[in-house]
Amino acid sequence: MRNGNLMKSYVPQEKKNINYSRDYKYLSSGRFIYFFQLLIMIVPVSILYLLNYEKLSWLIAKCAKYFLRIFTGQEISILKIDYLPKFGDVYYVGLEGKYPSLTMTLISLIVSVIFIILFSLIKTKNKPLLIFLTMGLYIQAFSSLYFVFFSKRFAYDLNGYSELYLKHQIIVWLLIMVTYWLTTSLITKMIFYRIFTFTALIIMEVVFGFVRYVLYLTFLAKCSYLFMAVLYFSFGFLFDFMIMVGFYALYMKKASEKFSTKAGGGLWKWS
């Protein structure tokens, strides 16, 4: 009876704020500090980047010209095109490509269809990788079909691919800078570690983007336009965001380790 009376006398209190954290705790971070960090870091860096991406594209094109001349044996030219008004143009390399033969196109189509069927029959727990590979095979299959019937109507050459690649790469790098800083700034502590990972991320993105630029152009110049679509859509800028996610995971791992210690206990608020 006593327990029953206690249950009847208990009146739940209504909470004004409900925090959806599993452990009923969350990091305390002021909005002022969050926006202040954005203003002093990402805005100046973005403006500096926009004012200097033309020089960066020139450096990439200059270095790419050196390596592509060795890898392809062609005379490589550096071309220039207007891009963002009031900010700058884009430099890119120009080189010759070639159309695929009908035999190569049919082989590519048959192999793509065979692997699409095989992948559909495989039962594995690693579904994301299988889905990713299957999407690439579908793109390659449709590309092969296009070159079987409309080879001469293909709208791009290697100059166009080179131009499009660097144009998109410049915007992707800017998006990654802004996105990474926005997401990691939600934890307003660890400012120096965030600057360190941010700098390392940008350096790795530029280096990896340059290496991919040279390798893809070399592969397309040696093989044919047949593989242009799959290289662009399946093995293109998705990798840039995967690198960003990897750096974000490292940052959050470090933050979790720090805030799990006694020294970091004072940074938590309890709901």
DSSP helical segment count: 8
Shape designation: flat
Helix content: 55-70%
Q: Tell me what portion of residues adopts beta-strand conformation.
A: 5-15%
Multimerization state: single chain
Description:
With 271 residues, this protein is mainly α. It has two domains: 30-97 and 156-255, no CATH class; 100-153. The chain is 67% helix and 8% strand. It contains eight helices and four strands. The strands form two sheets. It has a two-stranded antiparallel ribbon with strand order 1-4. Helix 5 packs antiparallel against helix 6 (191-222) and helix 6 packs antiparallel against helix 8 (238-259). The longest helix has 42 residues, at 31-72. The radius of gyration is 26 Å and the shape is flat. The two termini are 32 Å apart.
Topology, pairings included?
Layout: H1 2-9, E1 25-27, H2 31-72, E2 77-84, E3 88-94, H3 102-121, H4 127-150, H5 158-184, H6 191-222, H7 228-233, H8 238-259, E4 268-270
Antiparallel strand pairs: 1-4, 2-3
Helix pairs in contact: 2-5, 2-6, 3-4, 5-6, 5-8, 6-8
Structure summarized in a few sentences:
This protein is mainly alpha-helical and 271 residues long. The chain has helices at residues 2-9, 31-72, 102-121, 127-150, 158-184, 191-222, 228-233, 238-259; strands at 25-27, 77-84, 88-94, 268-270.
Task: Quickly list its features.
271 residues; mainly alpha; two-stranded antiparallel ribbon; 8 helices; 4 strands
